[in-house]
Every structure is written in C-alpha cells, then in structure tokens.
C-alpha cells in the first residue's frame, strides 16, 4: 500500500511538472507571437510614410501603391482580430505585403530623383532595419512554437494537451509564391 501511494504521488508530480512545462512553453510562444506583432506594427506604421514619399515621384506605379495600401488595411484588420487563432491568415497577408513592399523598393531604383531623395533613403534604411527585426522575431516565434508543439505532441503531453484543448500554434512559413526569385520586370510594368 505504501508503495502505491508513493508511486501515485510520483506520477502526479510528473504530470504536474509536464503540465507546467506545457503552460510555460505556450506562454513563451504567445510572447514570441507578440514580438512579431510589435515589429509588424512598426512596419505597418512606416508604410504610409514610404507611400507618401514614393507617390510624389512614381506616377506610373499607382497600382502598386494602391495594392500596398489595400494590403496594409487588410493586415491591420487581421491584427485587430488579434490572437494566435487567426495567425495563419495574418501571416499570409503579411507575406503578401512584404512581397509588394519589396517590389516597391525594386521599383524605386527606376526613379533616380526618388532613389536619392534624403527622406526616401531614410525610409529605406528604417524599412530594412524593421525587416531585420521582423525576421528575428519570426525565428524566435517559430522556435518557441516548435518547443510548444513538441511538448503537446510527445506523450504524456499529448494527453494533457487533449484535456486542455490545446492546439499547435502555426509556424510562420514563407508562401510558395514567395520562395520564387523576384523578377523585377513584374514590378516595373506600367
């Protein structure tokens, strides 16, 4: 009887510590998601300034500027919806926005006055800095998400996760279209 009580206590302690590890990893993944959110907000706030500067010089790129504005609006709506539940859709929108912004930066090269404009140079520098921070935040989020995923998919974590109703958090992945090399001609058509 004594061994039975000791074994039960050991099993309960083991399950408790596993539960605590799952909660800790989930919280770390949510914190990393918030880190991405902060960096994406910086980029979203930077976009109007870049577009305002570019619009003065880029008459032939109105459709690209409009697409970026539309995507920014969609991203902001997705961000307001919040949480990691809609993260997959938001990540898709962010990837599309990033692709269009990259196209804008390529298109800037065709406008010497814009390319050398002090405000545009500063905006490009800040944009590059923000993109580096976004990349770092994505790596951090994916690592935290993987640790959380591992914790809820390995026995006995899978049982605990099922009892808690936990689902793996989506990875931030680059869409298949984003993996293709950028063709500058696609962004330079009037």
Describe this structure in words.
By secondary structure, this protein is mainly α. The protein has eight helices and no strands. It has helices at residues 2-55, 62-81, 87-108, 112-115, 118-153, 157-164, 176-179, 184-188. α1 (2-55) runs antiparallel to α5 and α2 (62-81) runs antiparallel to α3 (87-108). The mean pLDDT is 83.
- Based on DSSP secondary structure assignment, what is the total number of beta strands? 0
Instruction: Write down the overall mean pLDDT.
Output: 83
* CA-atom Rg in angstroms: 23 Å
Q: Profile the largest sheet.
A: none
Helix-residue proportion: over 70%
Strand content: under 5%
Helix tally equals 8
Structural class, please? mainly alpha
Order of helices and strands: HHHHHHHH
Please mark out the parts with pLDDT under 50 across 5 or more consecutive residues, or reply none: none
Which term fits the overall shape? elongated
Could you give the distance between the termini?
Answer: 83 Å
Keywords: Membrane, Transmembrane, Transmembrane helix
Membrane topology: Single-pass membrane protein
Pfam family, one: LemA
Protein name: LemA family protein
Q: How are the secondary structure elements laid out?
A:
Elements: H1 2-55, H2 62-81, H3 87-108, H4 112-115, H5 118-153, H6 157-164, H7 176-179, H8 184-188
Keywords: Membrane, Transmembrane, Transmembrane helix
Protein name: LemA family protein
Family: Belongs to the LemA family.
């Amino acid at each position: 009887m004594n061994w039975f009580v000791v074994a039960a206590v050991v099993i309960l302690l083991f399950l408790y510590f596993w539960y605590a590890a799952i909660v800790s990893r989930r919280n770390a993944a949510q914190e990393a998601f918030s880190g991405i959110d902060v960096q994406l907000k910086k980029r979203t706030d930077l976009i109007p300034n870049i577009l305002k500067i570019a619009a003065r010089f880029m008459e032939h790129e109105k459709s690209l500027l409009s697409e970026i504005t539309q995507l920014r609006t969609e991203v902001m709506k997705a961000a307001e919806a919040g949480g990691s539940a809609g993260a997959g859709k938001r990540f898709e929108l962010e990837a599309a926005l990033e692709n269009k912004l990259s196209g804008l930066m390529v298109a800037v090269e065709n406008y010497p006055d814009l390319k050398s404009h002090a405000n545009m140079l500063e905006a490009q520098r800040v944009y590059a800095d923000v993109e580096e921070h976004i990349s770092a935040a994505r790596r951090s989020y994916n690592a935290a998400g993987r640790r959380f995923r591992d914790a809820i998919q390995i026995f006995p974590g899978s049982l605990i996760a099922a009892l808690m109703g936990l689902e793996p958090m989506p990875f931030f992945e680059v869409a298949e279209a984003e993996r293709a090399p950028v063709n500058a001609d696609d962004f330079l058509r009037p």
